[in-house]
Design goal:
Blueprint: E1 2-9, E2 18-23, H1 49-57, E3 65-69, H2 79-88, E4 92-97, H3 102-110, E5 116-120, H4 128-131, H5 139-150, E6 156-162, H6 169-183, E7 190-195, H7 212-222, E8 228-233
Parallel strand pairs: 2-3, 3-4, 4-5, 5-6, 6-7, 7-8
Antiparallel strand pairs: 1-2
């Protein structure tokens, strides 16, 4: 289950000192994924849950929070047990998700097991499945997760990794309109644009970042639909 651990990060949980734990398995196959080794459901376990809890006990007073990432964490059968153990030891939880399991997301938040959610918004609806590396995708569940976060039930952020070969002015503007429609009559509060960075862990060749001019243009296209559009490092 636990396939990776970053022992400390100042970037993943806004305003908090955290560690990040990576869970195995994903239902998407995004060609630009930095964690392609975590995509298969079966993989090598780095440490047991008990060993991770022992690690946390030693970090009491040093860490504020745990970021739970993947892969797609909501696919993990032991996720609730993991989050409950983290919360019982006094740490905040940030959950990274692709939004494909809205009912579980709602349950975890309502049970007080998640304090912050970062949801990836892959692209405009017409381009979403392709950007996820899939032939077909039920956008209804993605929209349900978006609407839940927009309800204010938990602090959240939306973020989009921009890949030059997968995003265009048309797809980005469509994404903005879609988010605005889901949020109506208000605007989504924030969307972070992250420029793709090629790494050895990316499974596909031939992908590249959008240039600064394109990123600035995308900000301009999204601004009418989103309260705050910010470019940040991926």
């Amino acid at each position: 289950m636990i396939a990776g651990l970053q022992k400390m990060t100042l970037l993943d949980y806004p305003g908090k000192v955290a560690c990040t734990v990576f869970l195995q398995g994903c239902n998407f196959a995004c060609p630009f994924c930095h964690n392609s080794g975590l995509l298969p459901k079966a993989g090598e376990e780095l440490m047991s849950m008990e060993a991770f809890f022992s690690f946390l006990v030693k970090r009491v007073g040093l860490l504020d929070a745990v970021c739970v990432s993947g892969g797609e964490p909501t696919l993990c059968a032991e996720l609730e047990q993991l989050l409950r153990g983290i919360r019982e030891r006094g740490f905040l939880v940030k959950l990274d998700t692709n939004g494909s399991r809205p009912k579980l997301l709602r349950q975890l938040v309502e049970e007080g097991l998640v304090n912050y959610v970062a949801m990836d918004i892959k692209n405009g609806p017409s381009f979403y499945a392709q950007t996820c590396g899939l032939r077909h995708l039920d956008l209804g569940v993605i929209g349900e997760s978006i609407r839940f976060l927009l309800s204010g039930a938990v602090p959240y952020e939306f973020r989009t990794t921009v890949v030059d070969q997968l995003h265009s002015e048309a797809s980005v503007e469509e994404m903005g309109r879609w988010l605005s429609e889901l949020a109506a009559p208000q605007k989504p509060a924030v969307l972070y644009l992250q420029s793709f960075v090629d790494r050895e862990s990316v499974a596909y060749d031939g992908l590249s970042a959008a240039g600064e001019e394109k990123m600035a243009r995308y900000v301009d296209l999204l601004t009418p639909y989103i309260g705050n559009v910010t470019v940040r490092n991926a």
